[in-house]
Amino acid sequence: MERRIFENPLIKDKVTLLKSSRETNGAYTLLEVELEAGGGNTLHYHVSFEEEFTAVEGVLSIGLKTRQLHLKPGETAVAGVKELHRFYNAGKTPIRFQVKLTPGSTGFEKGIAIGYGLADDGETNKKGIPKKMDHLAVLLDLTDTRLPGFFSFIMPYLLRRSKRAKRNGVLKNLENKYWL
């Protein structure tokens, strides 16, 4: 993988891969995120890694379970495995923060590259969700991301669809276009 910087104008962020899972022998993945005012993601959780968020510049807002945290530079919050969370910029100026995934996740790294590539190519809706169901299924599976609410009911279907899409070459095509 050559690219280490990924931008998504839809959710108003830029992600820099500082340390890949490969570089840390699987111990962790380290990302730095620049997030514009009003940017952020939706509630979700991961089933095989935790995320540690550390504010670097500005105030990073974290929805963690039922709490809303507002981290100042140097402050940290951890979303454990299966803990519902989201990050966002409630301020009026860009912020910067780091995210450490433990253990590392090459799938998540690939998912950022693919998801942001799809957004750049107009293959997602305004919220950054892929327009093609196979792409959505593969990305959720690849990044180990689970969504609450309605999506929790259809997640088993999406995971089965991801397996079929991978067998049919969808992941390979996405990797060739956005990762390799």
Give me the secondary-structure topology.
Layout: E1 5-8, E2 13-19, E3 29-35, E4 45-46, E5 50-57, E6 60-64, E7 67-71, E8 76-79, E9 85-88, E10 95-102, H1 106-120, H2 133-142, E11 145-146, H3 150-167, H4 170-178
What does this structure look like?
It is built from 4 helices and 11 strands, in the order ββββββββββααβαα. The chain has 180 residues and is α+β, with helices and mostly antiparallel strands. It has 2 domains: 5-102, Jelly Rolls (Sandwich), CATH 2.60.120; 106-178, no CATH class. Strands 1-2-3-10-5-8 form a 6-stranded antiparallel beta sheet, with helices on one face. β1 (5-8) and β2 (13-19) form a beta hairpin. α2 (133-142) packs across α3. The radius of gyration is 16 Å and the shape is globular. The N and C termini lie close together (5 Å). The mean pLDDT is 94.
Largest sheet: 6 strands, antiparallel
Mean pLDDT: 94
Fraction of helical residues: 25-40%
Count the helices. How many?
4
What's the CATH superfamily of the largest domain, by name?
Jelly Rolls
The total beta strand count reads 11
**Uncertain segments:** none
CATH class of the largest domain: Mainly Beta
User: So what's the overall shape?
Assistant: globular
